[in-house]
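Below is how a single chain appears once it has passed through the pipeline. First comes the sequence as given, then the structure the pipeline wrote out for it. We keep one example in the README because the format questions we get most often are answered faster by looking than by reading.
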Amino acid sequence: MPGFSSRLGRVALAASVQMTIKARELKAAGKPVVTLTTGEPNFDSPPHAIEAAHQAALKGDTKYPPQDGTRVLKQAIQRKFKRDSGLDYALDEIAVSNGGKQCLFNAIMATVDPGDEVIIPVPSWIAYAQMTQLCEGVPVLVNCPQNNGFKPRAEDIDAAITPKTKWLVLNNPNNPTGACCSAAEIAEIAVVMRKHPHVWILSDDMYEHLVFDGFQHATFAQVAPDLKDRTLTVSGVSKTYAMTGWRIGFAGGPKPLIKAMTVMQGQATAGTSTVGQAAAAAALDGPQDGVDVQIEAYKRRRDVAVAMLNAAKGISCHKPEGAFYVFPNVAGCLGKTTTGGRVLHNDEDVCLALLEEHYVATVHGAAYHMSPFLRISTATADDELLEGLKRIQTFCEGLR
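Resulting structure:
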């Protein structure tokens, strides 16, 4: 068989995907698996978005789209940025991609050369580091400890910046912890970034609307408008509107960067589904009451999850401000033996034992660059989540 490129060795299948596949295989074998791995809302897409896609198809809006997005959707995104964050972007400062992930990929591909460094506060979504490595860049991981609410500290970011630094990545609210930086905390980071004009800032706001207890989301360019000319603001319809499968993400940023990203996209996928863009425009401009329903459900599930995990022997769980994840610390489980005879040396052992002995699928914290933790998604039905949490408690009770 002919060989593969060396770059293939720099990336791997995401741990959340791997665990979801394992769970699916066990379920197919007849096991009563509860899957708490997937970062995907368990709600339906808005009916008005579906209808907009239907009407777009009926009227023949099925041809190749512009590579950077249709005018109708870009105008809706323009309104969204202004409405939600007070940000003004011209249409040529906005790009539409096949999901928010492609926005990130396009940006890194367009800017990172071999040896360039990308600062990533961790725990973090694994894709940031893997995309960097794919471009032969160097991920520089900045630890965000639990005692700081899993939030990045300005002084730690400052210490990590070198002449080779190309990007600072900020994911707010954060996957996998649900941690949210306030406007004041972002302002402290902005003070640092003003000292380093050679560094781009990537603000990944995909979970921006999923915040609780009155928390006010803020994005970097909003807090530091003087740095807007080197800030890329990324969002999409996947999480807010339960539209993961439509694959519509978007970014606002300086015109030269947006143009470079569009060039990169042109060699990968070109434009994005026309009917998907019609649906996204309808979601952004249409009724927003469905978002409030989701927020209420995620808050309720978060509260249940945090309470039940903190009641589990050997587990402590921080209460996140947003997103639909909890990130419990399982240090108290390590060194112990399960009822099935497995010795737990690390969080991956805990993760596998939960799946194989109690049929609960989670993701180990090491996959997000921090141990010993688990990522548990609360984007699942209440009864499924409750059953999964009860099994985790039973698992902990059985440890010796």
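The chain has two domains: 6-44+290-397, 47-285.

See the next section for the split statistics.
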